[in-house]
Amino acid sequence: MSIRTDLAVEAREMYQKSNKGDVPGVYIKEYNEGECKITDVEILNEEGEKNLGKPKGKYITIDMPEFVFYDKDTMIVVSEVLGSVLSGMVSLEKSMTALVVGLGNWNVTPDALGPKVISQIMITRHLKQLIPDEIDENIRPVCGMSPGVLGITGIETSEIIKSIVKKIKPNLVICVDALASRKASRVNRTIQIGNTGISPGSGVGNKRMEISERTIGIPVIAVGVPTVVDAATLANDTIDLAIDQMIHQSNTGGEFYNMLKAINKDEKQKLINEILNPYLGDLMVTPKDVDLIIDNTSKIIANGINLALQPAMKLDEISKYLN
């Protein structure tokens, strides 16, 4: 069964679980930055692409500390870690223009991350053009947009971005989007940064046209946070935990527990999907405090992008340019 996840680190974990070993064609590096765990997954060749089901390139995952959204100081620390990671992927001269795109539907809270980030990005392209003498020469020209979704505009998001790129000719696009996770523990706790572009909606089974260097002609960096998990996957994991616990606690070794051990987990997930689909459809689950979480996650992401695009400035200086 295909398990929905946008995270390369989860695709790697699933491969290792199924094949009992490292992933051929994939380089892995894990380290810590303060309270944040960082996992660098680099897909090196076609074999790695096949094994993880993702394009060749780099995927960096930042695992945020618990309760990060309730502590302003920790939010700033995570923003600085994100800014540092992004800086290593942003290859621009200070005169080059960056376009930040907030993907998603602003009317649906778990999908509103991208538009909320755009409202907090330091936008400077117009200032560099209109009042160049009053703007520090170290400030990079940055523009931003939130193109909405196909259901609202009737236009493919990639077509909108491609048209704008052709008109204003930026040197880099940074796309921000909500993702889907395979594990509930990673929902709203993980940031993924990749240099291979993005296919909006792929994690929730609504894959749209790809946004990448191949399709729009300039480098694309994707920044995303998983905000939902598939209900069928969640149910499957819950049943697995219950079965494992029953087997662990049982000393009888009877026929019933031997039957539990013999259950094929792929067949079980297929059965769960068949049972849930008529009643729930493609249900996605998100935490009850998602409004607060999305608001604060958007601040973390926006601050990280601002720091990466304006390396000559600190957060308190950047805040003066925001509404």
Describe this structure in words.
This protein is an alpha/beta fold. It has two domains: 8-232 and 283-319, HybD-like (Rossmann fold, 3-Layer(aba) Sandwich); 233-280, no CATH class. Helix content is 41%, strand content 19%. The protein contains 13 helices and nine strands. The chain has helices at residues 8-19, 46-52, 72-87, 113-118, 125-130, 150-153, 157-168, 213-216, 231-249, 255-261, 265-280, 290-309, 315-319; strands at 26-33, 36-43, 57-63, 98-102, 142-145, 172-181, 190-194, 220-230, 284-285. Strands 1, 2, 3, 4, 5, 6, 7, 8 and 9 form a nine-stranded mixed β-sheet that branches. Helix 3 (72-87) packs across helix 12 and helix 9 packs across helix 11 (265-280). The chain is elongated, with a radius of gyration of 21 Å. The N and C termini lie far apart (47 Å). Belongs to the peptidase A25 family. Its EC number is 3.4.24.78.
